[in-house]
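writing this on my phone so excuse typos. first protein, seq and then structure
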Amino acid sequence: MTDPKDYAEYARLSERNAKVGGSGLDTYMEPACPFCAAPKFARWSIVDMEGTASKEATCTNCGRSAKLIFTRGSQNEVSFEVVQTGGPDQPDWLQPKMRRT
């Protein structure tokens, strides 16, 4: 699989390649790569999203790595940010640019 050429192709591939499976407490999510939209970027447990998505994952297609950083606020709100942790820079057309750590 090659990198998408533009955002429209990326969005189409992301939708096609993202999966949710399992059931009940065993439900999981397999997001497409946040850089090239290749399938099976990672497997995140829905019950332990923060624990599984906070671990770095590397795409076997494009070689880029990412993880989610969770932030907890003073009123129990939770937000997250996808950050790039390795590999080549993301394509110029992919906006907004992810922060690198």
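second protein below, same order as before
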Amino acid sequence: MKLEHVKHSSDDPVSELHVNMSNILVRAAQGLTLSEKRVVSLCMAKLDSVKLDTGRYKFKLTAEEYAQEFDLNNVAAYEQLMAVGDHLLKRIARHAYPGPRGKMIEKKWVWASSVEYHHGEGWIQLAFSPEMTPHLTLLRKEFTSYKLKHAVALRSVYSWRLWELLMQFKKTGLLRISCDDFCQSMEAPPSCVKDFGQLRRRIIEPAVIELMKQNNVLIEWQAIKHGGRKINSLEFHFEPDPQGAFPEF
């Protein structure tokens, strides 16, 4: 797609722009590491500053801007960009949902369709796949939006994914989700899926603690049992900390 860039002032960094995606993609298993999540989210934020004409979405990412947004040195940023470019051509998002007669349907789509490396110049060019772009662009309903600045300081992909799940319900401040759906979104390892104690210790509690610290959000959560001894779902109540750096989401 040909992109016409909207000019922003020097006081309007990329981190002030929004990351937008369909709720399906929010709930999906995204298949990304932290560095890969950073790259695609930076591209998604840039979507907030461009106007669609015709063609295909392609994004130029420089090591300098990547380093600036995520507090890295330029060498580390360039190395991450090079590695992420290779991996994104293979990364798959997966969404499983009930189909007719109770049988599960699983849909898969790749993140990127092409990557160009400009060796010695410190930048790459990335294009989202045709199957991915409908989940990122021209969204009118059933989508989630948050500012990139709320994620740039996060050091865990679990924290980032929990933030996206919360932001789907930022108007109500209440996320209710089944354990199965939560584990799918988090891509929890089998040991955590089988043992809620491990899920709590390895994923939920560290993610909640990091979000409360980095994003100045107040979070209370509880595990819900619907009869019997098995925990079936989770509830997260959240709101901005009035004393924090981000007074609103």
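The two ends are 30 Å apart (CA to CA). thats all i got for now
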